[in-house]
């Protein structure tokens, strides 16, 4: 019986090993030797990935790569359809990533929370684009107007970074969004304190400058000072001192200032 079980084990082991080797060879052929020779928005990239899927449609990274140009060109329905396949074939690798994409690209915050919560429960915390799941969960709750949960999660993010890496590693965006949450809770004094922390790490961060000006106006009711500060923030924005996240050239982040909607006239 032991000999039989050993033979069964060896059969499945070598079968899986052979399958992995075969898939690795297919991935190599259609990514590094093909798709990666092109920009991901080029038609050559798409052609290589489609050929890879013809070779083996159960390889998750092909679906991930098929979705990439679709996210960047805002073809969200098609992007999600492909990314669902990536999650199907490699849930551990792509579930949390899908939550991030739903948060920042799709702006479907309830669904993003489902993915991020499931990924945390099944596989533990992880990083997406320099921030942990708690950061994106906080943004989701912020956008759903659940400010208490948003604050708790963003504070958890800050505390976690301080403990793991030190205070110098906290992103200015963490303080920025903490300030935004306090602003929405109408605690304008705390909002200014948090926005000042963001500005200490990222001087002349135009979005933080604007919300600081807005918070101070709520405190002091001094429109002239608000207008002067908002104009200075706009000048810093014009210098490019705004969001610098990896995906911010493609997508607006929550509470990124839309200057076209702000009247800076007297």
From TrEMBL:
Query: Which SUPFAM superfamilies would you find in this protein's record?
Result: TPR-like
Q: What is this protein called?
A: Tetratricopeptide repeat-containing protein
What InterPro entries does UniProt report for this protein, alphabetically?
A: TPR-like_helical_dom_sf (IPR011990), TPR_2 (IPR013105), TPR_rpt (IPR019734), Ycf3/AcsC/BcsC/TPR_MFPF (IPR051685)
This protein's UniProt keywords: Repeat, TPR repeat
Q: Where are the TPR repeats?
A: 172-205
